Amino acid sequence: MSKTQGKLNIIPLGGLGEIGKNMTVFRYGDDIILVDAGLMFPEDDMLGIDLVIPDITYLVENKDKIKGIFLTHGHEDHIGALPYVLKQITAPVYGTALTLGILQGRLKENGVSSEPCQTIKPGDKIQAGCFKVEFIRVNHSIPDAVALAIHTPIGLIIHTGDFKFDQTPVDGQVTEFNKFAEYGDQGVLALMADSTNAERPGYTQSEKVVGQTFDDEFRYAKNRIIVASFSSNVHRIQQVVDSAIRYKRKVAVIGRSMVNVVNISMELGYLKIPEGVLIDIDDSKNYTPDKIVIITTGSQGEPMSALTRMAMSDHKKVDIVPGDTVIISATPIPGNEKLVARTIDHLYKLGADVIYEKSNGVHVSGHASQEEIKMMHNLVRPKFFIPVHGEYRHLIKHAQLATTLGMPRENIVVGENGSIIELTRNSIGINGRVPSGKVLVDGLGVGDVGNIVLRDRRQLSQDGIMIVVVTIDKNTCTVVSGPDIVSRGFVYVREAEGLMETAKDKVQQALDKCEQSNVSEWSVIKSAVRDSLGRFLYEKTRRRPMILPIIMEI
Fold first, then answer.
1. How far from 193 is each of 1, 158, 215, CA to CA, in Å?
2. Which of 25, 77, 235, 463 is placed for a possible disulfide with 170 were both Cys, Cβ 3.0 to 4.6 Å?
3. How many other C-beta atoms are found inside a 10 Å radius of the C-beta of residue 173?
4. Does residue 364 contact residue 207 with C-beta atoms inside 8 Å?
5. How far is CA 129 from CA 65, 68, 260, in A?
6. What is the pLDDT of residues 100-152, one digit of tens each?
């Protein structure tokens, strides 16, 4: 028996200690499968960054061993990195119809072929190397979400994906409780379960609750209704449409991602909208305001989204007018609270009636709360447990929940991105690390912006820049013209002429000193200018702008 036989390595490359960029590697011998490949949106201090994806160095180094990529559902934090991954790796991609429908749109935008995509449905079993993967239907805030039962040579692993137990789902497709229970009876080696709501006691409410709220709000609204939600929440969109039909309103859809998802969902039969209900936004002016519902993106206050543009009176086709009812059917993702609050303020200023508090029942989570998490554990009854998908406190909370259900603490591993979690039939532990981390996407550049560039951007944004231009005679090393100083984002030059003049003198002194010492090395001259000017500016202003000396020779 070789050294790797009998050992399964589970390597999270993203999704642990953070919300987003979920990606997990399963490796047994020379076979690898990948579960999910998500992205994360940038944090506030990542200036100018568009997206964050996982570091896939480990996958690229082992790309000939990858037998398949398995997707749990179609949210960006589970499929968003695939356009970048598939440029470097070739492997079949398995997902449900809606998941692949949304993914194919993303791949097309990035000029990546969707040939590797293979549609599956719950109950299908796929053989990938020594792994056999079965799909189990679960509920989430997007249709067609699945959990995975991964049969490995040493035992069965259940990966829940993102889930909640909704007893009354909008499409009537209830979680396959029986499958989880059957696997529990057969014996499950390890469970990997969603931890997003591990801090929240009780149960997560059913999506149907939101439909009831829409009904109430639509009944009382006198004029136009605008509903903002996540484009991926197809059941939420369906409920808006149902309420609109009930109160004889027409529905218009705006926001690029919303239009895309609505079209894909209608094509695939996940969204049922009768003929004549959906109208183009341009045609809405042919109807009185009390006959119109607009479904839009922008529930997170994103600066370029349709709702934010409406709030700023900057949207090409929709102006908010007094009497409009705006329903924000989502809660702010941590970090977006200020953006959302600003949007709500602007909507109120324009005279709209805004309904956004969670207590109003305009939003329910797509993730299991504590009682549902306990139920999942009790159905599956695993030997070992690995909490996934959540910030570190969520993972710890989930681990504590598992111990209250009788799981021994030594059978639980709280990993980090890059940890190699080693599993045998009788043991679990962390054995080493692989490269992991954040790769930043800025425009068309992937990974070319790193910590140093971000640090420079931060410095530029906080203290500005000063450029010192000097022309030096090549033969005599004397200053021919300059020093000239240009500054941006440091001080308003016209009001600080005295400071600028003294700054020039300081540069001149530094240059004179170099000349006296017969220093002609550019790098030494630049560093002398930088030091003396930096010291002077800090003394005078307590600021540290970026200083760029430019030396020209003639």
1. 31, 8, 34
2. 235
3. 16
4. yes
5. 9, 9, 35
6. 999 999 999 999 999 999 999 999 999 999 999 999 999 999 999 999 999 99
Distance CA 140, CA 174 (A): 10
Q: Quick: pLDDT tens for 217-276.
A: 999 999 999 999 999 999 999 999 999 999 999 999 999 999 999 999 999 999 999 999
For 302, how many CA atoms within 13 A lie in the half-sphere containing its CB? 18
Mean pLDDT of all residues in the chain?
Answer: 92
> Which residues is 382 bridged to in the sheet?
188
- Which residues lie below 8 Å from residue 40, measured CB to CB, with a gap of 6+? 14, 18, 19, 20, 21, 51, 52, 53, 77, 438
Distances (CA, A) of 113 to 26, 42, 85, 124, 245: 25, 26, 12, 24, 39
Half-sphere exposure of 356 (CA within 13 A, CB side): 23
The active-site residue, picked from 36, 166, 194, 463, is 194
Cβ atoms of residues 40 and 83 within 8 Å: no
- Residue 327 has which token pair? 């329903």
Distance CA 450, CA 532 (A): 29
Q: Which residues of 123-132 are buried (b: 16+ CB within 10 A; e: fewer)?
A: eeebebbebe
Catalytic-labelled residue, pool 73, 75, 235, 367? 367
What phi and psi values does residue 94 have, to the nearest 5 degrees? -110, 130
Q: Tell me the two tokens of residue 436.
A: 């992991």
The partner residues of 44 in beta bridges, in order of sequence, read none
- Tokens found for residue 106: 């993303």
| Predicted model pTM | 0.88
Q: Is 367 a catalytic residue?
A: yes
pLDDT at 3: 47
Distance between CA atoms of residues 438 and 419, nearest Å? 15
State residue 493's pLDDT score: 66
C-alpha dist (Å) from residue 456 to 75, 399, 437, 450: 33, 40, 20, 10
Q: Is residue 550 within a helix (H) or strand (E), and if so which, with residue range?
A: strand 546-553
DSSP 383: E
| pLDDT classification of 524: cutoffs 50, 70, 90 | confident
